[in-house]
Amino acid sequence: MRVLGIDPGLTRCGVGVVEGLPGRPCKLVGYFVVRTEPDEDIALRLLHLDRTLGELVAEHKPDSVAVERVFSQHNTQTVTGTAQASGVGILAGARAGLPVQTYTPSEVKAAVTGSGTADKAQVTAMVTRLLSLDAPPRPADAADALAIAICHIWRGGTRSKIQAAAIRAARRTGAR
Fold first, then answer.
1. Closest Cα partner for 155 from 18, 29, 21?
2. Per residue in 59-91, is it b (16+ CB within 10 Å) or e — as a string?
3. Long-range CB contacts (< 8 A, 24+ apart) of 118-123?
4. What mean pLDDT do residues 45-73 have?
5. I need a labelling partner for 109 at 20 to 30 A (CA). Which of 7, 96, 101, 122 fits?
6. Structure confidence at residue 163 (pLDDT)
7. How confident is the model over 132-146, as a mean pLDDT?
8. Nearest to 54 by CA among 43, 65, 44
9. How far apart are CA 154 and CA 158, in angstroms?
10. Where are the domains of the chain?
């Protein structure tokens, strides 16, 4: 299974592509950070993110897309941008006809570290170890995106297969 993981952000959106099977070691395919300038028009920033994510989905041909679910933060401006980027990430998978699954930050942390309260350094260290990398992925947004992809492979494989079957069934019946 090949998964494209997305750590949504408007200024920096982490994207990680990982292959693997539940209960087995995963393999790194690649990771990227899509950047936009904070002083640019929001419509142009979202358009850039949409185009780039679409290109990455087309290039890497994942079986599914996993996106970190937006959670409430104290800074409403940050959470708004994150929510917008998350929606673009979900749309990129849906537009390609792929199953899309979202995971909370604590689900991702628990999947890769064993603790839902792990900090960013612990997540990065485990991603580096789990993927047998020589150096930690930088910036942290890339490591987080890889963690999301690993989480989906290990925890969401069954869910994504059920969702994919439902999408195929809906297409056969003409429903959307």
1. 21
2. ebebbbbbbbbbeeeeeeeeeebbebbbbbbbb
3. 120/144, 123/147
4. 93
5. 96
6. 62
7. 95
8. 65
9. 9
10. 2-173
What would be the CATH architecture of the domain defined by 2-173?
A: 2-Layer Sandwich (3.30)
Distances (CA, A) of 155 to 26, 47, 67, 100, 152: 13, 31, 13, 13, 5
The angle subtended at Cα 107 by Cα 167 and Cα 60, nearest 5°, is 50
CA dist., res. 132 & res. 114, Å (int): 18
Assigned token pair, 112:
């890769």
Task: Report pLDDT digits (tens) over 89-136.
Answer: 999 999 999 999 999 999 999 999 999 899 999 999 999 999 999 999
Q: List, by residue number, the catalytic residues.
A: 7, 68, 141
Distance (Å, whole) CA 85 – CA 9 = 5
- Chain centroid to CA 124: how far? 15
Banded model confidence at residue 72, pLDDT cuts 50, 70, 90: low
pTM over 0.85: yes
